[in-house]
Design brief:
By secondary structure, this protein is of the alpha/beta class. The longest helix is centred in the N-terminal third of the chain and has 15 residues.
Length: 79
């Protein structure tokens, strides 16, 4: 029996990073993940970057792309 797997990504901050992420996603999708997630607001990234990344990834994904929310210093309204 094959184990279920998932992948976690971080939203890119540059156009080059977005191209690299798309290549990585295409390569890893061959492993048939159950889902993938994009960590929200890491490394100084914004929620908008995360949302844009999820939207772009979902177009080509073979499985759901979900936000991975980090509570940290976020207010209830931000979450």
């Amino acid at each position: 029996m094959t184990p279920d797997i998932s992948f976690e990504y971080f939203a890119p901050k540059t156009v080059e990073g977005a191209f690299s992420l798309a290549k990585t996603q295409a390569w890893l999708d061959a492993y048939a993940p159950v889902f993938s997630s994009v960590t929200c607001g890491t490394g100084g990234g914004s929620v908008d970057q995360t949302q844009n990344t999820i939207t772009a990834m979902a177009k080509d994904a073979n499985a759901p792309i979900l936000p991975h929310v980090i509570w940290g210093n976020a207010s209830k309204s931000e979450v």
